[in-house]
Amino acid sequence: xxxxxxxxxxxxxxxxxxxxxxxxxxxxxxxxxxxxxxxxxxxxxxxxxxxxxxxxxxxxxxxxxxxxxxxxxxxxxxxxxxxxxxxxxxxxxxxxxxxxxxxxxxxxxxxxxxxxxxxxxxxxxxxxxxxxxxxxxxxxxxxxxxxxxxxxxxxxxxxxxxxxxxxxxxxxxxxxxxxxxxxxxxxxxxxxxxxxxxxxxxxxxxxxxxxxxxxxxxxxxxxxxxxxxxxxxxxxxxxxxxxxxxxxxxxxxxxxxxxxxxxxxxxxxxxxxxxxxxxxxxxxxxxxxxxxxxxxxxxxxxxxxxxxxxxxxxxxxxxxxxxxxxxxxxxxxxxxxxxxxxxxxxxxxxxxxxxxxxxxxxxxxxxxxxxxxxxxxxxxxxxxxxxxxxxxxxxxxxxxxxxxxxxxxxxxxxxxxxxxxxxxxxxxxx
Length: 430
Fold this sequence. Notes:
Elements (H helix, E strand, L loop, with lengths): L1 E6 L2 E6 L5 H17 L16 E5 L11 H20 L4 E19 L5 E19 L3 E11 L3 H7 L1 H18 L8 E5 L1 H13 L4 H4 L28 E3 L22 E5 L2 E2 L6 H6 L8 E2 L8 E2 L3 E4 L6 H8 L2 E4 L2 E6 L5 E6 L2 E5 L2 E6 L2 E6 H6 L1 E4 L4 E9 L4 E9 L2 E6 L2 E2 L4
Parallel strand pairs: 3-5, 7-14, 13-22
Antiparallel strand pairs: 1-2, 4-5, 5-6, 7-23, 8-9, 8-13, 9-10, 11-12, 14-17, 15-16, 16-19, 17-18, 19-24, 20-23, 21-22
Helix pairs in contact: 2-4
């Protein structure tokens, strides 16, 4: 049980895993002692006035993960491993390292507060993760990883088709390793695949859009943000760019209807048609900034204090097909997936290294490109978006934040987008 209390403008938090009366009294006393020791703070903590929820949200999977025999799970992992190895072998490439895992993330919460909120929440999340490394003696090494996850049971694992997915990934990275050439040196139009777009949304919009981060409370842990109060209403991208965070998406890895302060969730708009629009709030940040919470308070355990978190962050789709983006571009580069990325503490300068990528000539996919690098500022990237496809897809991730660190399940996603006039780098010579 986690216990959080507010005393004379200061918060205290404690937790206990023994629910006898003496242990509970001790935990409450610890939380009170923490709050009392902090009352000299110059700025009082307040909670925004909200209509708090009394509700229950119990999600039961169609096939419970634990009802599937472990021998069947192991056999599936072996099949996926063999499928990847065989696909690479046929192209003369070795998968020298393979890590494939299946898992379940069960969540059961009962949140009660003194303002009248009372929420029960239970969900089972299926997960699968893999990292594969392809090697060729003359061409070097390429690595690929992916996380899969959704709020479902074993039925999600069946839908993922791990053997087919590993075979396709092994073929793609083997071809990139063998056939990839350097990207063009001159500025070109670039189509980014939905996986990269989703990651950009998470890193350059979601994290900087956390209100506690803007208030300086993550500076020593996850970093700062370029977002400042005076920037709201200013343009940071083209009119094609609308980025939102929505916990309510069915089956999503970051799914929840009510947050850990008993506030109902909604779609939170971070960028609206290119204009910096909003933040993710809990009741504390909402009170400090004179607004309302939008249900972004989450903790990954009873032993952690709820803080402002993302759920499912994505770019709204457009009305073009992926093929139409190629036709609009005519000549350029298509970067389908990534193998590494990094971004600075303020979430402004960022770098994404593609793994499966192609030249596009006369609107058609041509030769493969090896290790293209997109290196842009947040405003530079979003401002260069000139068309958005309708192929919205989501990808699972484990978002880290806080101290002690809290990893939570999220989705990030988006459609493919067309960027105008990007100068690509290369990680290594092809």
